[in-house]
Amino acid sequence: MENGLESFARLEERTLALGQCFRDVVEERNRLQLVVERQAQALAELEAKVSSQDDVFVAVDAKMVELLRQIDSYLPEDIVDSGRDQILPGMHGS
Fold first, then answer.
1. 76: domain range?
2. Is residue 93 situated within a structural domain?
3. Is residue 92 part of a domain?
């Protein structure tokens, strides 16, 4: 009879230990899930920043082309003809 009680006590101990291990695994999974969610949020914010910087680069590029065209319009015609491709390569259809 005592042998059966000892076996049951060991089984109960192991069951409790397994239950604790399971809780530990669930807690770690939840912690890692929060880490992944924070990283996903940070990535989304970074993508938004990069996207807004792309818009800035496009705007700066357009402004540069506009300013170069203005410079081109102030240059004497003979300089424009000889250096047109150096100032605005490909912009005048030459």
1. 2-87
2. no
3. no
The C-alpha torsion from 65 through 70 and 72 to 77, rounded to 10°, is 150
**Over 14-40, what HEC string results?**
HHHHHHHHHHHHHHHHHHHHHHHHHHH
Q: Which amino acid is at 69?
A: R
Q: What is the pLDDT of residues 54-71, one digit of tens each?
A: 888 888 999 999 998 888
Place of tokens 């150096």: 86
pTM over cut 0.70: no
Q: Which residues of 54-70 are buried (b: 16+ CB within 10 A; e: fewer)?
A: eeeeeeeeeeeeeeeee
